[in-house]
């Protein structure tokens, strides 16, 4: 018996009425070692709360011990140090979140994350296996270089790597910490800084025995060097090829995830928090037609689909934190009802209640009709909803499960005292 997409939604929807209903997703995850938790926006409170709840269940019931997020490595290390008891015990979660000073600050400096960090710290004080929190994004080129130089200066001031690091950093100094300046310069000077950061990464990897494992200093060195190398390549590609720069970024995030797993042990189970556009398999979207890949696709290919479980999240309407233009103050914006014939409109039309789906061998094929799937970025103008914000997708293959919150509310940002411009 076959179903239309609408019939499949009606037949397989599971009402999501309480946190207990998330147990069916935890059960479906089974023995997967990599769980990806998505979101349709970076500014929706319910998405963060649901991911936190699922993460707690996976930590407590399935032994997951690492969380990787779509955030900068140096800022996330402040959280990691805090929850593992490596940092100043007088600080609290909101103090630690001040480290996320790069726009858009609200993505991680928010009350929902502060509550989750408090839980992680409490968990780590009573657990034999401490859970880590790691940022795997690519944007922190200058901060990562500064971290490398600081560590090398304090631990091995006479070492060859310190000279390499200073040489690499001096290459970027003329651009004043502004990646867009470097990106523009590379339109004419394509070899700028390439050799320096590549040599530094190779040297750090080949001399890994020189670095202590104390408080994950060795991992911190390796990933910061990886950021420096890949960010240089990313900014060089940014003004020339959108698909190439996207791929460099997602490939970097997978490299960083693999470094975290390697450091913590090959059996480490890791949870990944990123936007749906990163964690849902790109091969089940029109992204593939533009030559784009993503984290979800790469991890499925590397680890095998049986070891990777992707959960998408979406909404019909509500409010969201976003900005009208890049590097401008955030605001609360109304999210209009989902566009007609979209995935989210279909979920609302078949019953205006919260629901979840688990896609498996039995039903996945019924959810593979092409449909528009909403994606809201950090820059958002609801007036463009009729023309953009929807990625044509085969939802059943893009994810292994999907959680739908019919009406959502905006995230609760923490005001960050310092802001760093980026692009």
UniProtKB/TrEMBL annotation:
<dbReference type="InterPro" id="IPR014622">
    <property type="entry name" value="UCP036794_erythomycin"/>
</dbReference>
<protein>
    <submittedName>
        <fullName>Erythromycin esterase</fullName>
    </submittedName>
</protein>
<dbReference type="GO" id="GO:0046677">
    <property type="term" value="P:response to antibiotic"/>
</dbReference>
<dbReference type="InterPro" id="IPR052036">
    <property type="entry name" value="Hydrolase/PRTase-associated"/>
</dbReference>
<dbReference type="InterPro" id="IPR007815">
    <property type="entry name" value="Emycin_Estase"/>
</dbReference>
<dbReference type="Pfam" id="PF05139">
    <property type="entry name" value="Erythro_esteras"/>
</dbReference>
